[in-house]
Design goal:
single chain; about 375 residues; alpha+beta; 12 helices
């Protein structure tokens, strides 16, 4: 390959540089996109694991408070379970003091023990019906600790009067997940049942030592009580994660086509190289080199050119992903956070994604090197 290292013309240098830059930029975009989609999926999963229980055992009907407490104790003793507590959910309308005629739809999570995101070890005693508001919800209505909030509940059968809960705000939480921060209110279960004795307990909220070990936990809990139907955070949000996976695959295919277009610049560079080295190739043939051997040299040249672009693109993509994650470059205002469900997105490339990018891009470069 010594004849390839001889002095080259401006046209060959220009086409080679353009091919290198084109492949590198396309691969960089592909790496950043996959890192973005992976980070988005992880951000949603992390927020869901913090805001929701890892598993919930829903009762077929409802449970009495004593039954729920007894079941929670049995579940907490199962291997891999960190915490189990009775829980029920309510939908309501939060009265906005500034706009009483325009209430805000909210979800009330009544739980026996305060979740870790509330920052409380236990609910305050003898303080009535207290509440921890989502951070953005409290900002929207202007509530702060010590204020009293009113939540209207759906009417009882045959009544047009909306029953109301009066809640004392004792704190706020932020989970970087729009649905929780803008719609959720966490309240103590025992006080809620005192105000609404007909309510009952919907199920048991379960926190696991390993949030990803839900399948093993299901097996351990399968025969615990026939009244409980267990589900987990992945199953409850399976449609959303499936949509993210399809989006990731679609973007990978589309951007791979961009890499394919960029790799044809490698073909152009090889054509220019063949023309530029035509005399040298003729001399080699006169000395006994076969056309197949010269063709192999050109293919290797294309692989070196395109492969260096792929390597540079992967490197640039990983560095850019790290910088954008460290600086939290992708952040959303409240309006967009409501659409994308999270406040910010980290960019997290994975070894599997890097291997897929390298394999597909090198294959495209190889095809482009053979074509001329």
């Amino acid at each position: 390959m010594r004849f390839l290292r001889r002095r080259t013309g401006v046209l060959l240098r220009g086409t080679s540089l353009a091919a290198f830059a084109g492949v590198a930029l396309a691969v960089t975009a592909l790496v950043i996109t996959l890192a973005l989609m992976n980070g988005y999926s992880r951000a949603i999963a992390t927020a869901l694991q913090r805001g929701n229980a890892h598993m919930v055992g829903f009762a077929l009907g409802s449970l009495e408070p004593g039954e729920a407490t007894e079941l929670s104790g049995r579940i907490a003793e199962v291997n891999g379970v960190l915490r189990a507590t009775p829980v029920t959910y309510l939908s309501g309308l939060l009265v906005d003091p500034s706009e009483p005629t325009n209430p805000i739809p909210v979800t009330l999570k009544a739980v026996a023990d305060p979740p870790s995101y509330t920052g409380l070890d236990a609910w305050p005693a003898d303080q009535g019906l207290v509440a921890v508001f989502g951070g953005r919800l409290s900002e929207r209505v202007g509530f702060s600790p010590g204020d009293t909030a009113t939540v209207r509940l759906p009417p009882d059968g045959g009544s047009w009067i909306l029953p109301a809960l009066r809640l004392e705000v004792i704190g706020t939480f932020r989970l970087a997940f729009a649905e929780f921060d803008e719609r959720w209110i966490t309240i103590p279960l025992s006080e809620t049942l005192q105000v609404l004795p007909e309510l009952g307990v919907a199920g048991i909220e379960i926190e696991l030592a390993d949030p990803m070990a839900v399948d093993r936990a299901r097996e351990n809990l399968a025969d615990l009580d026939p009244r409980l139907l267990f589900t987990d955070w992945r199953e409850m949000n399976s449609a959303m994660f499936a949509a993210i996976r399809w989006q990731t695959l679609s973007l990978f295919v589309v951007l791979s086509l961009v890499v394919a277009v960029s790799s044809f610049q490698v073909s152009s560079a090889l054509v220019v190289l063949a023309i530029d080295k035509q005399r040298s190739a003729g001399m080699l043939q006169a000395l006994g080199a076969t056309p197949a051997r010269i063709r192999r040299v050109l293919v290797i040249s294309g692989l070196l050119l395109g492969g260096s672009g792929v390597a540079a693109g992967i490197t640039f993509g990983c560095i850019a992903s790290w910088i954008m994650t460290a600086t939290r470059a992708i952040r959303f205002p409240p309006g967009l956070a409501r659409i994308y469900m999270v406040d910010s997105i980290p960019l997290i490339p994975t070894p599997l994604h890097i291997a897929a990018v390298a394999g597909v891009c090198l294959l495209l470069v190889f095809v482009a090197s053979i074509w001329p």
